[in-house]
Automatic annotation (TrEMBL):
Segments traversing the membrane: none
PROSITE patterns: GST_CTER, GST_NTER
Highest rank taxon of the organism: Bacteria
Region (Disordered): 1-38
Residues covered by the GST C-terminal domain: 115-270
InterPro entries registered for this protein in UniProt: Glutathione-S-Trfase_C-like, Glutathione-S-Trfase_C_sf, Glutathione_S-Trfase, Glutathione_S-Trfase_N, Thioredoxin-like_sf
Segments forming domain GST N-terminal: 44-134
NCBIfam families assigned: PRK11752.1
The name this protein goes by in its record: Glutathione-dependent disulfide-bond oxidoreductase
Length: 270
């Protein structure tokens, strides 16, 4: 597949050829289950179905931070959903997440099981359920946390599906999309750098300020500037120049819960 300088979009798009790239074998313009599947279930109250990608690591971090705090009610079993093999399109997983993306979680500690998908929703649910890592009272502290959580949810697709895809996964280098998404990724890093110049964590100073906003943003942007995503992307983006993001990212990377979360052992589902 090569980039066609003379390409003109048709009046009506059709999926009449493979789109190329790393995930071409699983891409399709339709939703829903593609095969029958029975997901395993352990004995812990929380059942996590995920992968250790940035989106998956977010939830890993919170669960491990809760364990670090001694919250035994947040015990969980973690299972691997291999998105390169199409596990996300199995019938049981689609029942939990109709959008077929990781992570997904089921809480069996309630009278009726609660199913959750979307990392931001999972983090908010768990943080509020256990009263940790999210400000609970109305006011600026809670507003700041929710604002930065939603910032990540809106911003990261430009980093992952935009920059990451065209820089690392597209079938061939394409100058325009790489330039377009590099520009936006660097703008986002500058947003974070300017904010963290006056804040130890995303929502203020001191250990009590560390919360789900840090966890959800670090999983993408912290790992990016530390050279953990997309091969040489940190060099390409001049990540070392974002000194305040670097300081914040390195501090969080030293946390025992974060170290466990990044390398979390996931049990195969088959």
């Amino acid at each position: 597949m090569s980039q066609d300088d003379n390409y003109t979009p048709p009046k009506i798009w059709t999926a009449d050829k493979e789109n190329g790239g790393k995930f071409a074998s699983t891409n399709a313009p339709t939703a829903g289950a593609r095969h029958e599947q029975t997901l395993p279930k352990g004995d812990a109250p929380l059942q996590l179905y995920s992968l250790n990608t940035p989106n998956g690591v977010k939830v890993n971090i919170l669960l491990e931070e809760l364990a670090e705090c001694g919250v035994t009610d947040a015990a969980y079993d973690a299972y691997k959903i291999d998105i390169t093999e199409g596990d996300q399109f199995g019938s049981d997983f689609v029942d939990i997440n109709p959008n077929s993306k990781i992570p997904a979680l089921v809480d069996y500690s309630t009278d009726e099981p609660v199913t959750l998908f979307e990392s931001g929703a999972i983090l908010l649910y768990l943080a509020e359920k256990y009263g940790k890592f999210v400000p609970t009272g109305q006011g600026q502290a809670r507003a700041d946390c929710l604002s930065w959580v939603m910032w990540q949810m809106g911003a990261a697709p430009y980093l992952g599906g935009g920059f990451g895809h065209f820089y690392a996964y597209a079938p061939e280098p394409m100058e325009y999309p790489i330039n377009r998404y590099t520009m936006e990724t660097k703008r986002q890093l500058d947003v974070l750098d300017k904010h963290l110049a006056n804040n130890e964590y995303m929502c203020g100073n001191g250990e009590d300020s560390y919360n789900i906003a840090d966890m959800i943003i670090w999983s993408w942007y912290g790992q990016l500037v530390l050279g953990k995503l997309y091969d040489d992307a940190a060099t390409f983006l001049q990540a070392d120049s974002y000194t305040h993001v670097q300081r914040w990212a390195k501090a969080i990377a030293k946390r025992p819960a974060v170290q466990r979360a990044v390398d979390l052992s996931l049990t195969a589902i088959k």
